[in-house]
Design brief:
The structure holds 2 protein chains of 2 kinds.
Chain A (H helix, E strand, L loop, with lengths): L3 E4 L2 E4 L5 E7 L8 E6 L6 E5 L3 E2 L7 E6 L2 E6 L9 E6 L11 E5 L1
Parallel strand pairs in A: 2-10
Antiparallel strand pairs in A: 1-3, 3-8, 4-5, 4-9, 5-6, 7-8, 9-10
Chain B lengths: L2 E4 L3 E3 L5 E8 L8 E6 L5 E8 L4 E4 L8 E5 L4 E6 L8 E8 L6 E4 L3 E5 L2
Parallel strand pairs in B: 2-11
Antiparallel strand pairs in B: 1-3, 3-8, 4-5, 4-9, 5-6, 7-8, 9-10, 9-11
Classes of the chains: A mainly beta, B mainly beta.
Chain lengths: 108, 119
């Protein structure tokens, strides 16, 4: 099974700064089948990125996904107050389609 | 508009059975896989498995195989997650989500069902 490890566990930044979140897979993720989700307290997760770099419908262009193979990155170019949340990556190239453990993005 | 509406919160005792539901609307229910995701209190997301309502094909995570049963009733566009004998460790929020056509990421999510198991 593919295991996803996200880093850092917690990222403390200020609005307007750039955030870089990492997701590393224990084996290569086929065809860049990697998604990113955002979850705010008390809410269901929301799809941000699929196919490693494709933004889902309605997602602002300050969210940027990149990477391939075993190393993937979610970059948020200029943090808005509503971006502070927990972010999860998920691989869907090889069942079971596991999630990473999450990165909490908090206001500094 | 695609919508997934889950059944309400449940409070159960250890050993009891439970079936929670997820009703899809705004799309062809039989043409998209539906998945289930567990989130234990204060923890991350765990992929439990997926079911294809068109023919009820299922794929379980090894961690959940034999612990839960996924099913679907396409006549009422509803997917189910079932336990035969609940444990305290089943206490969690459970989300259903629609899988994207052609791939297996979760494109649309239900609001979640909170299951509390306590004696």
């Amino acid at each position: 099974d593919i295991v996803l490890t996200q880093s850092p566990g917690t990222l403390s930044l200020s609005p307007g700064e750039r955030a870089t979140l990492s997701c590393r897979a224990s084996q290569s993720v086929s065809s860049s089948y990697l998604a990113w989700y955002q979850q705010k307290p008390g809410q269901a997760p929301r799809l941000l990125i699929y196919g490693a770099s494709y933004r889902a419908t309605g997602i602002p262009d300050r969210f940027f996904g990149s990477g391939s193979g075993t190393d993937f990155t979610l970059t948020i170019s200029r943090l808005e107050p509503e971006d502070f949340a927990v972010y999860y990556c998920q691989q869907y190239g090889s069942s079971p389609y596991a999630f990473g453990q999450g990165t909490k993005l908090e206001i500094k | 508009e695609v919508q997934l509406v889950q059944s309400g919160a449940e409070v159960k005792k250890p050993g009891e059975s439970l079936k929670i539901s997820c009703k899809g609307s705004g799309y062809s229910f039989t043409s998209y896989w539906i998945g289930w995701v567990r989130q234990m209190p204060g923890k991350g997301l765990e992929w439990m498995g997926i079911i294809y309502p068109g023919d009820s094909e299922t794929r379980y995570s090894p961690s959940f195989q034999g612990q839960v049963t996924m099913s679907a009733d396409k006549s009422i566009s509803t997917a189910y997650l079932q336990w035969n004998s609940l444990k305290a460790s089943d206490t969690a929020m459970y989300y259903c989500a629609r899988v994207s056509s052609g791939w297996h990421y979760f494109e649309n999510w239900g609001q979640g069902t909170l299951v509390t198991v306590s004696s």
